[in-house]
């Protein structure tokens, strides 16, 4: 899946939330989105999920089955949990039994007959996660998935992420609680100043102790040549991101 020169703002004269974002997310990628409050993480997730169209630029190669669990599950719907999940299963062409494993894994058995609007915050969050997982997602977008979850569901979530990635799915998680930190190949997408910089955890942590990890800015057009030269000189060098606006790469 690829984002090409993607820009977004909420209104015509509003400031750009994201500007000129280029991003490649190969199958099996697990990425954690970081950035300060208001940086644009949830906006990026909605653009990835396709629930918000970009103002400019393109998203290509989005997998056909997208599971999206928003930060706040919309409970103002006239259904019980089981009626809602059954409908979601039917919409996706699945039988009602597709709900069972998620009821079990997320610990939702006692919630099935509860009206959505009576759910606690954490329980509503579980329903949001379950609906995103009903059909095996080629792209799974989780906005603050650990927020408000009880111990059983928290413990279950990293395994669920691994299963989706192992099946070739892309998983993108916005997570202030660092619930996936420690995963060996965790891509980090840092959102700030309207841009998204990719910092791969394994690159930063695989440096031998005592090794200095340095970041340099070069003209975007020179980035590949500079990287090859550094590699030829024996350095570990990767392009972490390109800032279209400043025409720089780091
Ligand atoms: N529906 C909206 N209409 C107008 N502006 C919005 C809307 N949603 C978000 N914004 C603005 O877009 C910017 C990015 O918001 P976003 O929710 O994507 O940030 P975030 O990084 O997810 O923040 P947080 O960490 O607080 O959840 C903020 O300035 C926010 O005020």
From TrEMBL:
Keywords: ATP-binding, Nucleotide-binding, Transport. InterPro entries: AAA+_ATPase, ABC_transporter-like_ATP-bd, ABC_Transporter_VariousFunc, P-loop_NTPase. GO terms for molecular function: ATP binding. Coiled coil: none annotated. It comes from the Bacteria. Gene3D superfamilies: P-loop containing nucleotide triphosphate hydrolases. SMART domains: AAA. Pfam families: ABC_tran. Residues 1-218 form the ABC transporter domain. PANTHER family: ABC TRANSPORTER ATP-BINDING PROTEIN ALBC-RELATED. This is ATP-binding cassette domain-containing protein. It comes from Sphaerisporangium dianthi.
